[in-house]
Write a sequence for this structure.
């Protein structure tokens, strides 16, 4: 760390612990002094020299022997030093004896009829990205006007400053409280700030989130995406996804915000904390398939139309403070493949959505959400239901069906009652269904097995087969692969059926007669396989027509 000796105005280097020092916070203007210029001439004629010497005078008057100024204490031509300095910046401001905030566009003698609190709001200092951490980190922060006269301190002006910046007063008083604030709330503090370089909008927030990462000037908005990826490596705060897409007309959107601007409406976000199952946090992390959630709490929306759309609700474990209380935030998702989801361009308050939920919370054992949605992905997203197996009864839709077992579970799309195969020619699956809602050891069940098969070198063809429980229990055992289990059970059942065609089977159980048929519908070159399933009680002891329920 390089510091300016306030007496000699010479730079000195310190390794490890540094002496007591003052630090400058300011907005850059023309005539700033670089490291090279300051080394050659500590008292030159450029405008920036006056700022440095005035600061040194203030520090020296307070008995402080050293100062740090970002313009001349860093060799900015060295990428390694610049990276180290930016990653250390928050700590340097926090460890300083005092921070001097120089308000170049504020004059105590102008507009004296107005209070200082109302006048400082117009200062450019409150609009710059780097000044956010320079406001929060220091233990003592003093504001000076353009003539280096004391305007006030962070403590004395904490009320007006909190109103201007939206930073909580307790955080202004103690920066250690910063890390208990929700991610979205902290992002919102930067939403109305600017930096000269796009990348600095992310780099200026490293200390706010206690993140270290390399500087890659030239990466543009990717810097902010990298920052968010780094944040979720060390935080399971779902509020990072609570940003709002604004006026975007896209049907599906990225999980990460393009910039802090999109967190502008998150000033009142509160941590969900320990408020029960509805707000429980999920374990999530980045993977090469997407953002991976383990044991995610999600719910299912009641299908309003037959069109493809978002059907799943992911609570974000955070709420927004409102006049009538607080409302949990959520995301809407669409399932596009086995364990794979995409974020829909919709979000809001969970309490508003509760009447439209199909059922209470369910748990996805493992799910992935696409982090980015590019234009070239849209055709894939719009055709994600191709070659799916959709279950229907004689009614228009399965309204109540109970499944006591199904595989592959990650391919099952609950609200649409279908398996998403993504056109995989090797796909196999099954449903274990009980015709009666009440189940027990002696309750009757049957299995619907399905998938694709090749015959005599032809393309893979879809099939569906009913399997008798006596046949199924022979193959349903731990350690056996799904493909072998389904294929073996289907082959044995076919032998028992004496060659009965797979696309129109009947199965006689002791109390029910079950039928299934497979019809393939092609729309816009997209095949969808309809599995028409039904059963009736035998005439002896007539029963109400059965339904399949989950």
């Amino acid at each position: 760390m390089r510091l300016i000796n306030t007496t000699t105005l010479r730079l000195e280097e310190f390794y490890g612990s540094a002496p007591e020092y003052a630090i400058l916070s300011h907005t850059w203007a023309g005539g700033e002094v670089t490291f090279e210029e300051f080394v050659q001439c500590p008292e030159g004629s450029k405008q920036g020299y006056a700022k440095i010497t005035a600061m040194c005078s203030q520090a020296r008057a307070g008995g402080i022997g050293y100062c740090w100024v970002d313009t001349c204490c860093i060799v900015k031509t060295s990428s390694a030093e610049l990276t180290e300095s930016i990653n250390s910046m928050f700590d340097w401001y926090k460890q300083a004896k005092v921070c001097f905030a120089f308000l170049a566009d504020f004059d105590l003698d102008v507009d004296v009829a107005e209070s200082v609190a109302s006048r400082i709001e117009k200062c450019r200092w409150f609009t710059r990205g780097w000044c956010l951490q320079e406001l929060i980190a220091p233990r003592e922060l003093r504001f000076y006007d353009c003539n280096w006269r004391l305007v006030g301190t962070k403590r004395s002006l904490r009320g007006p400053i909190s109103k201007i910046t939206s930073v909580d007063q307790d955080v202004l008083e103690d920066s250690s409280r910063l890390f208990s604030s929700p991610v979205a709330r902290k992002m919102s503090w930067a939403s109305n700030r600017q930096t000269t370089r796009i990348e600095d909008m992310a780099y200026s927030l490293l200390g706010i989130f206690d993140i270290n990462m390399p500087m890659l000037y030239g990466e543009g908005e990717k810097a902010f995406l990298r920052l968010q990826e780094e944040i979720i490596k060390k935080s399971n705060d779902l509020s990072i996804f609570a940003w709002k897409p604004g006026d975007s007309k896209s049907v599906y959107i990225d999980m990460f915000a393009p910039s802090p601007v999109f967190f502008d409406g998150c000033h009142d976000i509160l941590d969900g904390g320990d408020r029960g199952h509805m707000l429980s946090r999920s374990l999530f992390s980045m993977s090469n398939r997407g953002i991976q959630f383990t044991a995610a709490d999600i719910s299912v929306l009641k299908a309003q139309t037959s069109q493809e759309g978002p059907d799943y609700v992911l609570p974000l474990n955070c709420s927004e403070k409102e006049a009538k209380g607080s409302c949990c935030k959520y995301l809407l998702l669409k399932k596009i493949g086995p364990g794979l989801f995409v974020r829909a361009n919709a979000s809001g308050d969970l309490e508003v959505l509760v009447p439209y939920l199909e059922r209470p919370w369910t748990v996805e054992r493992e799910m992935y959400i696409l982090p980015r949605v590019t234009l070239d992905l849209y055709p894939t997203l719009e055709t994600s239901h191709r070659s799916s197996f959709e279950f229907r009864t004689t009614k228009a839709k399965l309204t109540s069906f109970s499944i006591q077992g199904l595989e592959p579970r990650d391919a099952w799309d609950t609200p649409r009652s279908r398996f998403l195969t993504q056109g995989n020619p090797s796909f196999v699956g099954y449903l274990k269904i009980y015709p009666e809602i009440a189940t027990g050891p002696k309750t009757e069940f049957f299995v619907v097995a399905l998938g694709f098969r090749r015959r005599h070198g032809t393309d893979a063809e879809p099939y569906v087969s009913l399997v008798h429980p006596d046949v199924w229990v022979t193959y349903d055992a731990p350690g056996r692969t799904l493909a072998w289990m389904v294929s073996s059970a289907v082959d044995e059942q076919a032998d028992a059926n004496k060659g009965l065609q797979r696309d129109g089977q009947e199965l006689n159980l002791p109390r029910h007669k079950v039928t299934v048929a497979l019809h393939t519908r092609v729309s816009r070159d997209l095949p969808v396989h309809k599995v028409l399933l039904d059963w009736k009680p035998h005439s002896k002891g007539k029963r109400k027509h059965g339904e399949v329920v989950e």
In short: Confidence is low (pLDDT under 50) at residues 274-280, 395-400, 541-550.
